[in-house]
Design a protein that fits this description.
six-stranded mixed sheet; alpha+beta; 337 residues; Rossmann fold; single chain; five-stranded antiparallel sheet; elongated; 25% helix; 8 helices
C-alpha cells in the first residue's frame, strides 16, 4: 500500500502542492484529476522518486521510501511521449528494464512475450518502434512497464496525444489490463472521461490541494463546490440571492426553493442545476431567459441561454427568442463557493 502524508512542494518560492495526503490500496486505481498547473504531475514525480518533497512522507507498506532512488522503487512509469528507444525494436524496448534488473537469459524472453500478450502485440517483436502508430507505441510503453512486474503503475496523461476513437479503445484495453493484473495504479489526467472510465476513486486537485475524492459516481452526483461542478461539467452553476420565505433571485428570475428558507435573507449562494432538470415552459412562467445559441448534438439540440445556462431539447427554439422555463426545484443543489 502507498501512503502519502502531508506532502508539500514549491517552485520559485510559490507553493505548488499544499499538504496532500492520500492512500492507494492493493489493486486500486486512483485518478488524479485536475487542470494544468494543479500539481498532479509534480505529485506523481514525487511518488516516482524523480523529485523530492520539501515536507511530508512517502511510504510503501509502512516503509519510508523518500530516500530510495527511482530505479529501486520498482514502480512502472508510462508517459504521454512514450519515452521509447527509437533505435531499438519492440522486443528490446520491452526487455530493457529486465536487462537492467540482470534477469537470466531464459527469463527475459518469457517476460517480454507475456507482457506483449497482455497488450495484444504478439508478432510485433522485431518491428522498429518508429514504424508503429501512436496507439501501438503506447502499448509498447505499457508492456515495458509491466514486464518487470512493478509494485505500482504510474501514468502521466498517457493518452493525451491520441485521437478520440483510439483513446476510447485504449482506455477500455487499459481498464481490462489493470483489472486482470491487480497492480495498483495512479493515473494523472485533466480529462474527466478518462478518469471516470478507469478510476476506482477520483481525487480532484485544484491549486495544489485535493478538494474532493470519492468514486466517479459520488463526485459527479455530489460536487462539493462550484469549481468542482463546473470542472466536471455536472451542469449549470448559477448565483442567487436569498429573498424572503424561501425565494431566491437568480439570472433566470425568482425561484421558490424550500431549501432556501433556512438561509439568511440577503445571503449569496451558488446553485447546481443539471440540464436534465430544466424544461421549456410558456412565457407565463416566472423563470424566463433569451436563447443565445442552439447547437445540434447527436440526436438533440443544446440550447444555450443568457449567462451560459444550457439544457437540451428535441425541438429547438430560435436564437434571440425569449422562452419560459420550468426547473425541478427538488433537484437543485447548493454548492460551496
Amino acid at each position: 500500500m502507498l501512503i502519502l502524508s502531508d506532502i508539500h512542494k514549491s517552485y520559485d518560492e510559490k507553493p505548488l502542492i499544499k499538504g496532500v495526503s492520500l492512500e492507494v490500496a492493493t489493486g486500486e486505481t486512483i485518478c488524479l484529476l485536475g487542470p494544468s498547473g494543479s500539481g498532479k504531475t509534480t505529485l506523481l514525480r514525487i511518488i516516482a522518486g524523480l523529485e523530492n518533497a520539501e515536507a511530508g512522507d512517502v511510504r510503501w507498506n509502512g516503509n519510508e521510501i523518500s530516500s530510495v532512488p527511482p530505479h529501486k522503487r520498482n514502480f512502472g512509469l508510462i508517459f504521454q511521449d512514450y519515452a521509447l528507444f527509437p533505435h531499438l525494436n519492440v522486443f528490446d524496448n520491452v526487455a530493457f528494464g529486465l536487462k537492467m534488473q540482470r534477469l537470466g537469459r531464459e527469463e527475459i524472453p518469457l517476460r517480454v512475450m507475456a507482457s506483449l500478450r497482455q497488450v495484444d502485440l504478439l508478432g510485433f517483436e522485431s518491428r522498429r518502434v518508429t514504424e508503429l502508430s501512436g496507439g501501438e507505441q503506447q502499448r509498447v510503453a505499457l508492456a515495458r512497464a509491466l514486464a518487470p512486474r512493478p509494485r505500482l503503475l504510474l501514468f502521466d496523461e498517457p493518452l493525451g496525444a491520441l485521437d478520440r476513437k483510439l483513446r476510447e479503445y485504449l482506455l477500455a484495453e487499459l481498464r481490462g489490463i489493470l483489472q486482470e493484473s491487480g497492480i495498483p495504479a495512479i493515473y494523472v489526467t485533466h480529462d474527466q472521461e478518462e478518469a471516470f472510465t478507469l478510476a476506482d476513486r477520483v481525487m480532484l486537485l485544484y491549486d495544489g490541494e485535493i478538494v474532493q475524492s470519492g468514486t466517479p459516481a459520488e463526485v459527479y452526483a455530489h460536487p462539493v463546490s462550484g469549481w468542482v461542478a463546473e470542472f466536471l461539467g455536472a451542469g449549470n452553476v448559477i448565483q442567487g440571492k436569498i429573498l424572503k420565505d424561501g425565494l431566491l433571485e437568480t439570472i433566470l428570475g425568482t425561484m421558490d426553493l424550500p431549501i432556501a428558507r433556512d438561509q439568511a435573507e440577503g445571503k449569496s449562494v451558488s446553485l447546481l442545476i443539471r440540464p436534465q432538470d430544466v424544461n421549456r415552459a410558456n412565457l407565463a412562467s416566472p423563470l424566463r431567459s433569451t436563447v443565445q445559441d442552439v447547437v445540434f448534438q447527436q440526436n438533440r439540440f443544446k440550447v444555450v441561454l443568457k449567462g451560459g445556462i444550457y439544457f437540451y431539447l428535441s425541438d429547438p427554439p430560435q436564437v434571440g427568442e425569449e422562452i419560459g422555463l420550468k426547473i425541478r426545484v427538488d433537484k437543485v443543489q447548493y454548492l460551496d463557493e
